[in-house]
């Protein structure tokens, strides 16, 4: 039986191993004495630099093909060709333990790929030089939730006519989360619900979410000229990460109020002795609208 004894810094870190005899590669390489064993491991991205991923001498069962002395004399190397990913890993020449030697950032290494697969080849040679093996190694990198949904700016400002129709939509920018699957952006919500504005979310053909605000009920600048909403974008990771967008909404005045006298009835007693052209009454009126809509003549 086969036992894993490494301890991993992340609790979620898991390691699976599959080994299969890959004869086709043996034929392709067409070298005498070459044995190709395919091994695969699964690691989380962003594991601590230097984390041991596997032990090639042990995991390949190559000891079964060699005398104890030959097995002990094996020297291991990572072949730098043809794998671009070889530079991310290092192997102990004597023990065959291989580890990361760089940051393994899934978002950087596999930006547009859901299945993030790294490849490298390890060679093992006996001291006598008579036995030479190459082991193709596959490393699947699993996503962790290390990116928050992010809006391109912290706040946007929108101006609406105060008589804007109910259900009119107000476009807002969307958020981006570079993680995948449940760690990617899942939903949008308003931090504080509003009785004047709602949030609706539609889906693009590519399944990405499009958030939109809409007018939920009639607005009136004379009641409230300015609103501030906070749109929250959430991913589905554990713990859940979020990003916020502040939306400033300013209502533009519409001439929807007639001028009004402050009193509906005026009464004045004019005596016979009142001189011509003297002021007998001050009429006062006001208009709730703004600027030219509120100016009286
Ligand atoms: C190596 O040994 C383990 C444990 O016996 C076994 O599960 C695995 O299939 C073996 N791999 C090869 C390539 O023989
Ligand atoms: C990772 O560790 C190796 C030494 O094992 C070092 O050379 C390398 O610079 C380190 N990389 C990072 C990103 O820390
Ligand atoms: C929104 O209003 C806040 C103050 O309430 C301000 O700090 C922010 O800059 C405004 N955003 C825009 C885009 O005007
Ligand atoms: C006008 O005169 C009448 C009768 O004298 C009086 O009842 C009323 O209060 C006066 N109104 C004003 C605004 O002075
Ligand atoms: Ca990452
Ligand atoms: Ca990630
Ligand atoms: Ca995320
Ligand atoms: Ca108005």
Automatic annotation (TrEMBL):
<keyword id="KW-0472">Membrane</keyword>
<keyword id="KW-0677">Repeat</keyword>
<feature type="domain" description="Cadherin">
    <location>
        <begin position="152"/>
        <end position="261"/>
    </location>
</feature>
<dbReference type="InterPro" id="IPR050174">
    <property type="entry name" value="Protocadherin/Cadherin-CA"/>
</dbReference>
<keyword id="KW-1003">Cell membrane</keyword>
<dbReference type="Pfam" id="PF08266">
    <property type="entry name" value="Cadherin_2"/>
</dbReference>
<dbReference type="InterPro" id="IPR015919">
    <property type="entry name" value="Cadherin-like_sf"/>
</dbReference>
<keyword id="KW-0130">Cell adhesion</keyword>
<dbReference type="GO" id="GO:0007156">
    <property type="term" value="P:homophilic cell adhesion via plasma membrane adhesion molecules"/>
</dbReference>
<dbReference type="GO" id="GO:0005509">
    <property type="term" value="F:calcium ion binding"/>
</dbReference>
<keyword id="KW-0812">Transmembrane</keyword>
<protein>
    <submittedName>
        <fullName>Protocadherin gamma-a10</fullName>
    </submittedName>
</protein>
<dbReference type="InterPro" id="IPR020894">
    <property type="entry name" value="Cadherin_CS"/>
</dbReference>
<keyword id="KW-0732">Signal</keyword>
<keyword id="KW-1133">Transmembrane helix</keyword>
<dbReference type="InterPro" id="IPR013164">
    <property type="entry name" value="Cadherin_N"/>
</dbReference>
<dbReference type="Pfam" id="PF00028">
    <property type="entry name" value="Cadherin"/>
</dbReference>
<feature type="domain" description="Cadherin">
    <location>
        <begin position="35"/>
        <end position="151"/>
    </location>
</feature>
<feature type="signal peptide">
    <location>
        <begin position="1"/>
        <end position="36"/>
    </location>
</feature>
<keyword id="KW-0325">Glycoprotein</keyword>
<keyword id="KW-0106">Calcium</keyword>
<dbReference type="InterPro" id="IPR002126">
    <property type="entry name" value="Cadherin-like_dom"/>
</dbReference>
<dbReference type="GO" id="GO:0005886">
    <property type="term" value="C:plasma membrane"/>
</dbReference>
């Amino acid at each position: 039986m086969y036992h894993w004894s490494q301890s991993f810094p992340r609790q979620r870190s898991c390691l699976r191993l599959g080994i299969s005899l890959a004869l086709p590669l043996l034929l392709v390489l067409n070298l005498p004495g070459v044995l190709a064993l395919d091994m695969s491991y699964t690691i989380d991205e962003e594991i601590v630099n230097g984390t041991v991923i596997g032990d090639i001498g042990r995991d390949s069962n190559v000891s079964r093909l060699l005398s104890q002395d030959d097995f002990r004399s094996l020297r291991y190397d990572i072949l730098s060709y043809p794998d671009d990913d070889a530079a991310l890993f290092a192997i102990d020449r004597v023990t065959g333990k291989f580890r990361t030697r760089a940051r393994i950032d899934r978002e950087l290494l596999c930006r547009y790929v859901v299945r993030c697969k790294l490849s490298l080849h390890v060679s093992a040679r006996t001291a006598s030089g008579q036995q030479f093996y190459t082991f193709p190694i596959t490393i699947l990198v699993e996503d962790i939730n290390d990116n928050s949904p992010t809006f391109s700016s912290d706040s946007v400002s929108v101006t609406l006519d105060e008589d804007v129709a109910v259900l009119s939509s107000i476009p807002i920018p969307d958020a981006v989360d570079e993680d995948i699957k449940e760690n990617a952006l899942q939903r949008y919500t308003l931090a504080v619900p509003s009785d004047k504005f709602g949030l609706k979310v539609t889906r693009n053909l590519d399944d990405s979410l499009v958030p939109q605000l809409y007018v939920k009920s009639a607005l009136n600048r004379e009641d409230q000229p300015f609103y501030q909403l906070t749109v929250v974008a959430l991913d589905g990771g554990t713990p859940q990460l979020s990003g916020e967008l502040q939306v400033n909404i300013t209502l533009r005045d519409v001439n929807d109020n007639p001028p009004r006298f402050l009193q509906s009835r005026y009464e004045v007693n004019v005596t016979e002795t009142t001189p011509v052209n003297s002021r007998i009454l001050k009429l006062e009126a006001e208009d709730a609208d703004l600027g030219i809509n509120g100016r009286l003549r």
